[in-house]
Structures are given as structure tokens and as C-alpha cells.
Amino acid sequence: MKSIEISRKHGFDPRSFDEWLKQSGYRFQSKLMSIEVDESQNIDEIAAKFKAFSDAQKQQAADRAAAQQQEDAARNQKLAGILITSGYNFEGHTITKYSGYISGDDAIEVDRPTQGFFGGINSSVGASLMASLVHIRRNALTEMKEAALALGCNAVIGVDFDYLTLEPETVNNQGGTLYLPYVFGVTANGNAVVIEKNDRLGPS
């Protein structure tokens, strides 16, 4: 009996069933375009064992996905709890540890403006940049917070931003200049620290 017929009958994924069958120890013959299962074996038993295997694989995948979601949620909660300031202290808190300079980066590409017949320039670059600036700045801050978290810190002081603009170009097949999209980058800088509320420190 062809393995594809077994898969269709029981609603199996044919590729997964064939891969499992090759490792199962059951007797079969590989032909040019199909796999023939020896019908002297109990076909229903083979199908039941694959179904149990497939169900176990799906459950393991679901468990891994759930564990990853919990891990991501816990990480996001920790990141949300990291305080940042452009200053160098937090009201009501005392800095108990300095862990040094950290940064986070992100960048985008924006197509260069096109010149019209009369030299008019399409000004969509500025609009595209402003639309993306909030996004890349947020990503840079998130990466900076991740760096703070990796150092065991719960705050970042002295936060500022550096911006970078690149105008890359190369040579095309005809030997002329090929102007590549603009690259706009942002770096969030700061100093990772550990802060504690003053009421936790007790009397000095």
C-alpha cells in the first residue's frame, strides 16, 4: 500500500509520515515517486503509532511556544521596569552601583529622491525619515535597556542620542555611479546603574 494513500486516509502530512516511516523499523520499499508499505503488516497499527508520534511532536512544539511566550513576557516586563533619564539621578532613589557605558543602535534605509524633468526634487525622503525616526529610536532604546538588563542593572542615566547619515554609492555595470539608498542610523547612549528607593536603604 502506498504511503500517500495511508496519509490521505488518516489526514497525515505525507512528508512527515514518510520521514517517520523510514526511521520506524516497519517494512517498506522506496520506489521512484512513492513509498510502498508492506501490507503483511498491520497498517492501522502503523497509522496509530505515527499519530501518537505526531501528536507528541505537536504537544512539545506547543509547550516550547508557551514557554517562549512566558520567557518573552517576563523579559518585556523587566525591560519595561528599567528607568531611563537624560539626567544623572532619580528623585527618591539612590544609585548603589555604576556598571559603565552602554548603547543601543538601529538604522533604516530610505530611497533617494528623484529629480524631475525641470530639476524638481521629490521631498519624500524627509517624510519617510520622520515616519521611521520614532521606530528606530525606540528600537535603539530597547537594545540599550537589554544591555543594562544583561549587566544586572535597573536604570540608565545620562541618556542621549547620536544620529548618523550615510550616502552610499557604488559603480554600476556601465562604469557609472549607482546611488544606493540613504542610511539613517541612531545610537542611544547612557550609563547603566542600579538604583534603590531611599526608603529601602534605611537610616544612614
How does this structure look, described?
- The protein is of the alpha+beta class.
- It has two domains: 3-77; 84-201, Translation Initiation Factor IF3 (2-Layer Sandwich), CATH 3.30.110.70.
- Helices cover 43% and strands 29% of the residues.
- It has five helices and eight strands, in the order H-H-E-E-H-E-E-H-E-E-E-E-H.
- The strands form three sheets. A four-stranded mixed sheet has the order 3-5-8-4. A two-stranded antiparallel ribbon has the order 1-2.
- A hairpin with a 4-residue loop joins strand 1 and strand 2 (35-37).
The total strand number stands at 8
- Return the domain count: 2
- Biggest β-sheet strands, sense, barrel: 4 strands, mixed
In the predicted model, the low-confidence regions spanning at least 5 consecutive residues are 115-122
CATH topology (fold) name of the largest domain: Translation Initiation Factor IF3
User: What quaternary form is this?
Assistant: single chain
Radius of gyration: 30 Å
Order of strands across the main sheet = 3-5-8-4
Topology:
Layout: H1 3-10, H2 14-24, E1 28-30, E2 35-37, H3 43-80, E3 83-84, E4 93-110, H4 124-150, E5 155-166, E6 169-171, E7 177-179, E8 182-197, H5 198-201
Parallel strand pairs: 3-5
Antiparallel strand pairs: 1-2, 4-8, 5-8, 6-7
